[in-house]
Design a protein that fits this description.
By secondary structure, the chain is mainly α. It contains 14 helices and no strands. The protein has one domain.
Length: 331
């Protein structure tokens, strides 16, 4: 039998590539990203006002929709987990995990939370304490509310979204043998159209959403790292320093991805989890230990006790106050 590897050098060379570019997705996503960045740089500071206004309009007019979607994701995942569908093995009946539960948890936690929780675990409670979402709150009530809202944003709800996307990708990729791309999730709706124009559009939007989402998290993380280096070692907390940090972190992440899950992503995620555990132990030892433990137990109970209330809270009364008197409600 003829060896196809030796008879087709081009195919052999292609199989050794780390990356495979899909032009209908890569080039539109790359061009739109570059165009967005160039416009932002050329316009300068006024773009901050533009982004703020877009965010205000979306949050004021479609915040209710976002809340319904997030709750739907969480409750749907809970239903699937405890229904007969929860017994479906990803990868097929005879599939076995490639990594231990601890390794999977480390990778999922690092990818799902990552920089965000390191920054907002401190910033968000402080923000909600200084500006309580519920009017007329005493300092004690403001502190409880601040932790309650932080637990909401970093508790079960985000994992409902992560689980839905991850489970869908895994099922359609490993059970239905479709491409490992967001387009595959829409196969029940679009059928074979996911392999054409509409599938390309879905993947382009997914790439842009992922890119700008990572850029936001990376930006917050770099600001925190830069401020920390300035505080500890007196290094300049300037824009050039932050650019250097972005480059270094991006290179580290790229190397991790190129090395693969086993040698790169898994080891980096496990190191991240171990460092996080050391930080937790250090904080518990440094203290005040009893206060930290008391607050954790109390805030967890407060979060669970008010779970449905805060899960569907839209601040509707305050929103009406902010709406102009003669406005139709749609800005």
């Amino acid at each position: 039998m003829e060896n196809n590897t030796h008879s087709n050098p081009a195919k052999s060379q292609k199989s050794k590539r780390y990356f495979d570019v899909h032009p209908p997705v890569f080039w539109p996503a790359a061009l739109l990203s570059v165009l967005f960045i160039l416009v932002t740089l050329m316009v300068g500071d006024p773009m901050t006002e533009v982004f703020s206004e877009i965010q205000r309009v979306i949050s004021n007019n479609f915040g209710w929709f976002l809340i319904l979607v997030i709750n739907t994701c969480l409750f749907l995942m809970i239903f699937l987990a405890f229904s007969r569908l929860g017994t479906i093995r990803l990868g097929g009946r005879n599939a076995v995990p490639d990594f231990s539960r601890l390794s999977w948890f480390a990778m999922l936690f690092s990818a799902g939370m990552g920089i965000g929780i390191l920054f907002w675990s401190v910033a968000e409670p402080v923000y909600h304490f200084l500006e309580p979402p519920f009017a007329g709150a005493s300092p004690e009530d403001a502190a409880r509310t601040a932790m309650k809202m932080t637990f909401l944003h970093w508790g079960l709800h985000p994992w409902g979204v992560y689980a839905l996307v991850g489970m869908s990708l895994a099922f359609f990729t490993f059970n239905r043998k479709l491409p490992l791309a967001i387009r595959s999730i829409f196969y029940p709706l679009l059928k074979d159209k996911v392999h054409g124009f509409w599938g390309d559009c879905i993947d382009v939007l997914a790439v842009l959403a992922t890119l700008f989402g990572l850029a936001t998290s990376l930006g917050f993380g770099v600001q925190q790292v830069s401020a920390g280096l300035h505080h500890l070692f007196g290094w300049p907390d300037t824009m050039p320093m932050q650019v250097v940090l972005v480059v270094c972190i991006t290179l580290g992440a790229t190397v991790s991805v190129v090395l693969g899950l086993d040698r790169g992503v898994k080891r980096l995620s496990e190191m991240n989890l171990n460092l996080g555990a050391l930080l937790l132990i250090f904080l518990l030892i440094l203290g005040p230990t009893v206060m930290i433990l008391d607050a954790f137990v109390q805030n967890t109970g407060n979060y669970l006790d008010n779970f449905l209330h805060i899960s569907f809270w839209t601040d509707s009364n305050s929103a009406r106050k902010k709406t102009p008197k003669h406005s139709s409600g749609i800005t």
